[in-house]
Specification:
The chain is α/β, with parallel strands linked by helices and 333 residues long. The protein folds into two domains: 159 residues, Rossmann fold (3-Layer(aba) Sandwich), CATH 3.40.50; 150 residues, Response regulator (Rossmann fold). Helices cover 42% and strands 17% of the residues. Strands 7-6-8-9-10-11 form a six-stranded mixed beta sheet, with helices on both faces. A five-stranded parallel beta sheet has the order 2-1-3-4-5, with helices on both faces. It is globular. It starts with a helix and ends in a 17-residue tail after the last helix.
Length: 333
């Protein structure tokens, strides 16, 4: 059989398969159309990690990516529908405040794949959920904080007291307690995902009461620590390049394992409703403790050794960081 005849036969077979609606084949022939709907700006740390992973897939030539930032909850359903109607095959976002509306859209577009940050369960057949299960590096960063505090007072400023935030703060507190049982915590929530001035003010109040290490779950906290000459622990992203003398450690979230899995499954026609949470864990490279960087020689050697040993135990399965979704409470007197 000549090469030309083989090409003709293959082309006819592909055309027939497409006409028959073979799942996934059409996606495999072209770039996947991916869209994202975000309620906060791209620069916000949590959404920024999703955006980064999708931009990387776009740079590799795997997807066509479009996204809208700062979408109000009241407009979320409309924007989702517009993206689905436009033929995007995979849609991502965070639906913590718009669960019912988002799930309604997914029901109306059963052939579209949805991967959404959510506190609830997957919804068959096409609505998968995820969140940042980075309690393992949060525990390790807590160990650094517990070993660095001189006053034994740590301040913690969070966005909202929801499970996704609570589990990270509780893990951080447990890590700090492991190396320093005397440590006390001041905990507050600003009830916003992006309000740096409000977070900064909350941090100032804690520093004024003696906190010398701040857990920066939100933007603005590290600014307060820097201005007051205190330390900060980062969450989700590493901002040490901007605060080289302030940010001692950071728990990083890597969304790439989740994004790459979803893209692959949609292309293969195998995407189903599932929980992507576990793909944010350290064993899947979905999270990690950032390199200590400028604090490499500032973290006490015994603490650094304990962190390294604990990290090895987590990766080997010898130690499991407890998932505690309960709202963390202040212990400072």
């Amino acid at each position: 059989m000549t090469a030309r005849r083989q090409i003709i036969i293959r082309s006819v077979a592909i055309a027939a398969a497409l006409a028959a609606g073979v799942p996934g084949l059409a996606f495999a022939q072209a770039k996947l159309k991916v869209a994202a709907v975000y309620t906060v700006p791209f620069e916000q740390q949590w959404v920024g990690r999703i955006h980064k992973a999708l931009k990387a897939a776009e740079a590799r030539g795997e997807i066509e990516y479009t996204a809208t930032e700062n979408v109000a909850n009241a407009d979320y359903e409309r924007v989702m529908r517009e993206y689905a109607t436009a033929g995007n095959q995979l849609i991502l976002g965070e639906v913590f405040g718009v669960e019912a509306a988002a799930r309604k859209v997914a029901k109306d577009f059963p052939k579209t794949a949805f991967l959404m940050g959510s506190s609830l369960k997957p919804q068959a057949p096409n609505f998968s959920v995820f969140d940042n299960y980075i309690q393992e590096p949060a525990y390790l960063s807590g160990m650094v904080a517990g070993g660095m505090t001189k006053t034994n007072k740590i301040g913690m400023v969070g966005g909202f007291p929801i499970p996704e935030v609570n589990r990270l703060m509780n893990a951080f507190m447990a890590g700090a307690k492991e190396v320093n049982p005397k440590v006390e915590f001041s905990v507050s929530f600003i009830n916003s995902w992006f309000d740096p001035p409000k977070a900064k003010e909350a941090a100032f109040a804690m520093i004024d009461k003696g906190a010398d290490v701040m857990y920066a779950e939100r933007f603005g906290v590290s600014d307060a620590a820097k201005e007051k000459g205190k330390l900060a622990i980062g969450n989700v992203i590493n901002t040490q390049d901007k605060y080289p003398d302030t940010v001692a450690a950071s728990a990083l979230w890597n969304f790439e394992p989740s994004a790459d899995r979803a893209i692959k499954l949609v292309k293969e026609g195998k995407f189903t409703a599932e929980d992507y949470g576990p793909y944010s864990m350290m064993k899947h490279k979905g999270s990690e403790l950032a390199p200590l960087g400028t604090f490499e020689n500032k973290v006490p050697a015994d603490i650094a050794a304990k962190v390294k040993a604990k990290q090895a135990d987590i990766l080997s399965g010898k130690f499991t960081v407890k998932v505690d979704d309960g709202q963390p409470k202040s212990t400072a007197k």
